Amino acid sequence: MASLIFMYHDLTSDIASVPSGHRPYVLDATVFRRQICLLARHELPVVTVARWCAGFRAARTIVLTFDDGHVSNHDLALPILCEYGMKATFYVTAGFIGTGQTMNWGQIRALHAAGMEIGSHTMTHRPPSTLSDEELRYELTTSRDVLENGLGAPVTSISSPTGFFNPRMKDIAREVGYGALCFGQAGLAADTADPFSLNRIAVKRTMGQDKFEALLRFDRSAILRIKCRQVVPGFARRALGSRFYLPIRRALLGSFSSD
Ligand SMILES: [Zn+2]
After folding, report:
1. Are residues 74 and 114 in contact, defined by beta-carbon separation less than 8 angstroms?
2. How far does residue 157's CA lie from ligand 1's centre (Å)?
3. CA of 159 to the centre of ligand 1 (A)
4. For residue 214, how far is its CA from the centre of ligand 1 (angstroms)?
5. Which of 49, 54, 145, 152 is most buried, most CB within 10 Å of its CB?
6. Domain boundaries along the sequence of the chain
């Protein structure tokens, strides 16, 4: 038995207002609504990361996660999730709360009050591979303190910025007392999966409805294709190192067609 953890970022109702380099990660709210509607039609169980880790791992469970804490998580995703009675996990970069396009406390508390899980996406969103163990420990513990103080509730899961698997982050997340850590490595989350190394499938603009539906059928070849498309960028990152690879990747994202 296995589950699928989807990774979303921002939604928009006006893609023209989104900088072109960021567009691959931004989904039209209408597309998101269609996906949630499909999910409801498939009658698959949908739970938060915390609930999944607490043992809710029925066959073909779906987990919805959002990285970064963009205001559209509150303005566009929350009403759609509430309409369909679904819960999701929102990973917020604690050091950015209330700045730029990141949600403010009122919006984060509204998500939490609606039954959504709030998790950490570190303090500063720096790539874990560029940080010392001490810096990583700061990122993980301080972000949790900020979120727990602001919410008045425990924060038990975290997602890695940049998504790449990092063994030191995994060890430190466990050591400082988190219950789960999500990366962006494509793949299913097996029942027996290590909760500190959870795979996720990124839902990007290039993912058509047919591919999304294939994923809801847990079509192994659709999942394999997504995994294969991650191999080349993963190899390039390892060869170049995150510090050099990430700016190149960002520059390429405008024309990058991976999903
Ligand atoms: Zn992020």
Report:
1. no
2. 14
3. 8
4. 26
5. 49
6. 2-252
Average pLDDT on 9-37 reads 92
Ligand 1: centre distance to CA 203 (Å): 13
Round the CA-based radius of gyration of the chain to a whole number and report it: 17
- pLDDT of 249 > 80? The answer is no
Predicted TM-score (pTM) of the model is 0.89
CA of residue 85 to ligand 1 center, whole Å: 26
Q: Is 20 exposed, middle or buried (0-12, 13-18, 19+ CB in 10 A)?
A: exposed
Tens digits of per-residue pLDDT, 164-196? 889 999 999 999 999 999 998 888 888 888 999
Phi, psi for residue 27 in degrees, rounded to 5: -105, 140
Ligand 1 centroid distance, CA of 125 (Å): 6
Q: Residue 54 has which token pair? A: 């607490």
Q: How far apart are CA 9 and CA 126, in angstroms?
A: 17
* CATH code for the domain defined by 2-252: 3.20.20.370
